[in-house]
Specification:
elongated; single chain; 84 residues; mainly alpha; 0% strand
Length: 84
């Protein structure tokens, strides 16, 4: 999982040991989820292996990125933005 280290610092030990923390908090809340979404689309733009996947999307990814951010926020245990 090389891409994780390229966009976020390693999780602190106390976060790894917390059993009641949701993935949303472990990723860094909204900032971490946004960074994850940005990194996903960076890889899709730059990696030839994802060219086919990129072609399935519009040229302007801003709305797509926002929808994925909203969905992942709720799915990872944060605010349920997508369904609001």
């Amino acid at each position: 999982m090389i891409w994780i280290n390229s966009w976020r610092e390693p999780l602190p030990q106390h976060a790894l040991m917390s059993q009641d923390a949701f993935p949303y908090q472990l990723l860094g809340a909204a900032d971490g989820v946004r960074a994850l979404v940005e990194r996903f689309y960076q890889l899709m733009e730059r990696s030839p292996q994802y060219a086919g996947l990129r072609k399935l999307h519009r040229d302007d990814l801003s709305q797509t990125k926002e929808l994925l951010f909203q969905f992942l926020s709720g799915w990872l245990g944060g605010p349920n933005l997508y369904f609001q």
